[in-house]
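Q: Could you fold this chain for me?
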Amino acid sequence: QVQMDESGGGLVQAGGSLRLSCAASGRTFGNYAMGWFRQAPGKEREFVAAISWNGGSTLYADSVKGRFTISRDNAKNTGYLQMNSLKPDDTAIYCCAAILRLYGSRRSDDYAYWGQGTQVTVSS
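A: Sure. Below is the predicted structure, expressed as C-alpha cells.
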C-alpha cells in the first residue's frame, strides 16, 4: 500500500507557474513509477505526465510538453510537477498516482495508488 498526498495547487494568472508536490508513504517509493493526471469539470480524467522509478524516463501529454516538467526525489519520497506558462485550459484537479512498475503509463487504469488531488485554477 502506498499513500499519496498532493500539495502546491492554487490560483495563478495565465502565464504563471506552480509546482505541485506528491509525498508518498507506506512503501519504498523508489520501487514505483509515478504519474500525474488531471480532471477538469465536466471532462474525463486525462494523462499529464509520468516518470520512471529512477527518474530516467519521462512521458508527457502533447498539451503540456515543453511547459511542464515531472521529476522525483526518491530520498525524500516525493514527486514533483513543475508547471510553467500556465493557461486557463490547465485548470483542473491534479492527482498523482503510483504504479508498481519500472516505467510509467499513460493509462490511468494501470495505476493502483492515487492521491486525493489538488486544485489548480488559472485565470485569464
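A (continued): DSSP finds no helices and eleven strands in the chain.
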